[in-house]
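Researcher: Good morning. I'm working through a list of sequences from a screen, and I'd like to move beyond sequence-only analysis. For each chain I'm collecting a predicted structure so we can compare shapes side by side. This is the next one on the list. No need for commentary yet; just the structure.
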Amino acid sequence: MPTATVSQTSQKQKKEKDKERTSSQPQPNERLKTVVRRLPPNLPEEVFWQSVQPWVTEDTAVWKVFYPGKLRKKLNKENIPSRAYIAFKNEEQLASFSRGYDGHIFRDKTGVIITDESLCPLTWSRG
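Model: Good morning. Structure tokens for this chain:
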């Protein structure tokens, strides 16, 4: 009998944590979210936000977050690319960003061109 009480308590705590996570992030319309994937793993966050500055500002985006990638030191491991999530305020701003940023070129310090990023609508939610 005590195990049922423990599992019920842990379920309640899990539900409370899930509510905190979802309430801390604004929930804009699902069609206005986008993810910029496959960014260079060593791309600094500041450089990315400067590159999207014409389209992503406080006036155009409701929510934005950047996750840095990881460069693997071992040759048999793959690098983990960086990615960014952006929620726009309206469809026109999202379309403008998609048209303008698609195919953006990044150059590293040695001048090597990296053009592997892709734009995708964000189709899942955490709720």
